[in-house]
Design a protein that fits this description.
This is Ferritin. By secondary structure, this protein is an all-alpha fold. The protein has helices spanning about 5-35, 35-65, 85-110, 115-145, 150-155. The protein has one domain: Ferritin, core subunit, four-helix bundle (Ferritin), CATH 1.20.1260.10. Helix 1 (about 5-35) packs antiparallel against helix 2 and helix 1 runs antiparallel to helix 3.
Length: about 170
């Protein structure tokens, strides 16, 4: 059974994950309109992933005797000055989500809710990976600079981007 404190905190995270999905959907649409098909597809996938994160939280809250809430969402930014700025915003957003997850972990320990603490460890590892991916993308964008050919290749290659973070399980583990 979830305490009201944990239930409230988890419902806040449900909203954050839903808003994350909307943020990445807006980024996908912006990139698609700009003709950046690879970036657009990458962002559509990110949007879907964030929705899955939200649903995982919803199911956890309900399975633990709480009541997950579907709340109103803040409208995301829908335009960017450049694809670089868009990915800078992506990194800022992932850092914000990481801070929120860390606060949830802290609350779960304060409440001595070890089941929730255990559940949240997946999110902690996921955020390490998400931030590493965003930083890797920004590193590549900085290498490209203003080279249109580099942008073309980046747009094509981003769909195959894989970043293995230190939080990922060992192969075969």
């Amino acid at each position: 059974m979830l305490s009201k404190t944990i239930e409230t905190a988890l419902n806040k995270q449900i909203r954050i994950e839903a808003e994350s999905s909307q943020v990445y959907l807006a980024m996908a649409v912006w990139a698609e309109v700009k003709g950046l098909e690879g970036i657009s597809n990458f962002m559509y996938d990110q949007s879907d992933e964030e929705r899955e994160h939200m649903l995982k939280l919803v199911k956890f809250v309900n399975e633990r005797g709480g009541h997950a809430h579907v709340s109103e969402l803040a409208a995301p930014n829908v335009s960017f000055d450049s694809f670089r700025q868009m990915f800078e915003k992506l990194l800022e957003h992932e850092i914000y989500v990481s801070e929120s997850i860390n606060e949830l972990v802290h609350i779960s320990l304060q409440e001595k809710d070890y089941a929730t603490h255990n559940f949240l460890q997946w999110y902690v590892a996921e955020q390490i990976e998400e931030e590493a991916t965003a930083r890797t993308i920004l590193d590549k964008i900085n290498m490209i600079g203003d080279d249109k050919g580099g942008l073309y290749l980046f747009d094509r290659d981003i769909q195959q981007l894989t970043v293995v973070s230190s939080a990922a399980p060992e192969p075969g583990a």
